[in-house]
Amino acid sequence: MSKIRKNIKCLINQWIEPYNRDIKKLESSNLPLFDATKIINETILNMEMVSGNNGKIIKEKVSDLIHKNGGFKILKQISDVLSGKKESFLPPNFKPKMSTCMKYAPITSVDVEQSFSTYKMILTEKEPT
After folding, report:
1. pTM over cut 0.85
2. pLDDT in tens, 28-74
């Protein structure tokens, strides 16, 4: 029984905890776009290292998710330009001045949801509790 517990603890430490930390980082406020896209890319690379049948399933799901999310591709392009990566280019119809406004663009909806909650409290006639 202790060997099973040890294996489970090892599994959690190796695979689950790093993803939990990454999600918390992505949900934090004022995370630069470059850092956010770097976290996503590193997570994808780590997931691709999983072997066996589970690894194949994970790789397919991650690939499908990235393929369906065209917005991430655009954010990655902007991040590459902002970081000075060679041979990077802005998306079509995207002006250089616009890219500087994207330095702290939220990559998750958490910042956006928090902003809406704050604005809602400001715009309503609710009294603080």
Report:
1. no
2. 767 888 888 888 888 888 777 777 887 788 788 888 888 888 888 88
Contact status, residue 81 vs residue 103, Cβ threshold 8 Å: no
Q: Which two tokens stand for residue 101?
A: 């406004």
CB count within 10 Å of CB 17 equals: 11
Residues 6 or more apart whose Cβ sits within 8 Å of residue 22: 39, 42, 43
Report the alpha-carbon distance of residue 26 to residue 37 in Å, rounded. 9
